[in-house]
Amino acid sequence: MKYNFDEVIERRGSGALKTDRLKERFGRDDLLAAWVADMDFATPPFIIEALKKRLQHPIFGYGVEPDEYRPLIIAWEKELHDWNIDSEWISFIPGIVKGIGFVINVFTKPGDDVFIMPPVYHPFRITAELNSRNVVNMPLIEKDGNYYMDFEKLEGIKTEGGVLILSNPHNPDGRIWLREELETLAKICKRKNILVISDEIHADMALWGNQHVPFPTVSEEARENSITFCAPSKVFNIPGIVSSFAVVPNPEIRDKFYGWLKANELNEAPEFSYVATCAAYKEGREWRQQMLQYIEKNIMEVEEFCRKELPGIKALRPEASFLVWLDCRDLGLSQEKLVDLFVNKAKVALNDGAMFGDEGEGFMRLNVAMPKKQLMEVMERIKRALHENHSR
Fold it and tell me: What is the per-residue burial (b if ≥16 Cβ within 10 Å, else e) of 158-177?
C-alpha cells in the first residue's frame, strides 16, 4: 500500500480529546483510547503539504473562498454518491452539531418537537434539549442484529411540525439506509410538515461495496424538505479543522437558513478549512480507498476475535464508518457493571452504549480506526478482563 496505516503515533500531550481528557471523561487516564470518532492514522500527507504551503506565506489576514472550493465538492459528491448539486445549494457551516443547533433555532421555537431515532448519536438529543425543544424518541426496531425505522410510530404522531434529525449512515450501528426507507421517511415527514436534517458525516465511509444514498436524492419530497450536512472530516481525519458544509436544494428553506447564517457571519470558513477541504477532494481518492480497506480488515479482526475469544460479545458489522457496535447483552451485566468491566478491569476507553439512549444499554461502541497492533491490544485487554470476571 502507498500509505502506512500501521504506524503507531503517540497522541498523548497533543491536546487530543481522545487521550488528553480520559481522566475527566472516564475517571482514569491509564486507558487505551478507542472511543471518540476520530482516527489514529496520520492525516493524509497531501493535506498536510497543502497546509504547509499556505503557512509559507507569512500573512494570515482575511481570506476568501477559493474558486475551486464548490466545484470540488460538486465533483466529489457526484463521483461518490451520484448526487447532482448546484453551486448555490452549498454553504460552509462551522460544525455539524452546531449546524443542527442553528436549524433548530431558525426553524422551530422552544417547546417544539425534535424527533430522533435512538440508539443514536447523543448530541442530537443534547442539542435539542439544551435549546428547550421537546425531544421525541422514535426508537429504531432491532431485529436479528439489524436496525430499522419505525414508520408506524412516525405515522402515528398526532402533532405536526418540528424537525427530524436523521443519522445517515446511522451512528452508532453503521446502518446505510435503503433508498426505499428514505423515500418512505420523506413522504411521512413532508405530509406532517417535519423538516428533515440529514447528518451525512459518515457518508464517504461506505464499506464492502455498500452505497450511501444522500437523503435529498430519493424523491421530490426529500429534496424539497431537507437540509443535509456533510464534511470531509471523518474520512480524511481532519475534525480539528472545521470543514463542514450544508446542502439545501429548496430555495425557500435555503434563503431562510443561509440568510440567518450570513446575518451572523457563520457562513465563511477559516482559511485552513478551505485549504484542507480542497486538498482532500482533489487528491484524496487513493488514500480513501486504502484507508477503507484497512478499516474493513480491522473490523473483520474484531469479528473473529469476538467469535473465538469473547463469549457474550457480538460485533455487529457496520455498513459504513469505523465504529463497531458491540452487543454485550449476553454477558448478563448491568450497564454500570459493563462499563466498569471495560474501563476499570480492561482499562480501555469505549463509548458507553447508554449514552445513545436507553436502547443502547447492553452495548459499547468501539472505534477501530487505529493500527492493527493497537486494536489487538484493546481486544486482548477485554479478553483478560472477561476471563478474570468469569474466574471470580
Answer: eeeebbbbbbbbbbbbbbbb
